[in-house]
Specification:
Cytidine Deaminase, domain 2; Rossmann fold; alpha/beta; 9 helices; 2 domains; five-stranded parallel beta sheet; 262 residues
C-alpha cells in the first residue's frame, strides 16, 4: 500500500477511494469522519508527528488530502513527543487562512518524504470542461452576475477567506466563510433569482482544498431561490457529475462551467 487518504467530511473521500486500483489507507482526523467510508486509521492533530511516522512505517509514499476539515480544537495536554517539535508551525497553521494552513501541513508531510497527490490527479474528469451542462441555460444577465462573482471571490481569496459567493443582480448577498458553502446557502433568505458562484482563490495551491459542488448542492441552491450555479473552469471539482446535473435539471436550475478568462 502506497497511498493514504487524509480524509475530511463529505462525499469526496469515498469517491477517491472507490476509483483506486488498490485500496488506499483511509486516515481520518477525529471529529471529521467522511460519509460512507470507514476509517483504517483515526488520528488527532495533537499526535500528528506520530501519525506521520506511522504512515512511513506502513510503507505509505504519497498522501491525498480530500474532504472538508474545519480547524479542530487542540488540547495541549495531548501533544506527544513526536509532535512537540511541530507545534510552532501547527500554531501558525491554525491561525492562518485556509490555503496558508494547508501549505504548512503539506510541507510537514513532504519533509517526511511523503508526496502530495492532488485529488484530480487520482480521479479522472473531476474538473469539467467549460460549457453548460444542464437543460436550462443561463438567463440574460447571468454573465454580469458571474463577472461580479469572479471579482468577489478573487477579493475574498486575496485575504485567504472563502471560495464562493451568492450574487443577485448587481448585489453580493452572501460570502462564504469558515463554515463553508452549505452553511452560507442555508443561512440565505429565500429570494428571487441569482447565482451561486464558486472558484479557487488566486494563487491557491491546487494540490488540496479545491472548491467543489456535488449532488447535495442543487437542493440548497433551489431552496435559496437562485437560478443556477456558475463555477470557474479549471479549478472547481464537480462530484458525481451525472447525479448533480440530473438534480439541477429536476429542480429547474442551470449549471454553467464558465471560462474564468472570459
Amino acid at each position: 500500500m502506497t497511498l493514504a487518504l487524509i480524509c475530511g467530511q463529505g462525499h469526496l473521500p469515498r469517491i477517491v477511494a472507490g476509483t483506486q486500483s488498490r485500496p488506499p489507507l483511509v486516515c481520518v482526523l477525529r471529529g471529521f469522519e467522511p460519509e460512507y467510508l470507514p476509517a483504517d486509521v483515526t488520528f488527532r492533530l495533537e499526535q500528528l508527528g506520530t501519525f506521520i511516522a506511522d504512515l512511513k512505517a506502513r510503507g505509505v509514499t504519497q498522501v491525498c488530502l480530500c474532504g472538508a476539515i474545519r480547524r479542530p480544537p487542540v488540547d495541549p495536554t495531548l501533544i506527544d513527543a513526536a509532535t512537540a517539535p511541530l507545534v510552532p508551525r501547527l500554531q501558525r497553521a491554525l491561525t492562518s487562512g485556509d490555503d496558508s494552513a494547508l501549505r504548512i501541513v503539506m510541507t510537514l508531510f513532504e519533509e517526511a518524504g511523503l508526496k502530495i497527490a492532488p485529488v484530480h490527479d487520482l480521479v479522472a474528469d473531476l474538473i469539467p470542461e467549460p460549457g453548460i451542462y444542464t437543460l436550462k441555460a443561463p438567463r440574460s444577465g447571468t454573465d454580469d452576475e458571474a463577472r461580479l462573482g469572479q471579482r468577489t471571490v478573487a477579493e475574498m481569496g486575496a485575504r485567504d477567506v472563502g471560495q464562493a459567493c451568492v450574487i443577485r443582480g448587481s448585489s453580493v448577498v452572501a460570502r462564504e466563510d469558515a463554515a463553508g458553502t452549505d452553511a452560507m446557502l442555508d443561512r440565505l433568505a429565500h429570494g428571487e433569482g441569482g447565482i451561486l458562484y464558486k472558484a479557487p482563490k488566486p494563487q491557491q495551491d491546487r494540490r488540496a482544498d479545491l472548491p467543489a459542488i456535488g449532488p447535495d448542492t442543487p437542493e440548497r441552491v433551489a431552496a435559496a431561490g437562485l437560478d443556477g450555479i456558475v463555477i470557474a473552469s479549471g479549478g472547481v471539482l464537480l462530484l458525481e457529475r451525472a447525479k448533480t446535473v440530473a438534480r439541477c435539471d429536476a429542480l429547474g436550475l442551470f449549471l454553467w462551467v464558465r471560462d474564468a478568462g472570459v
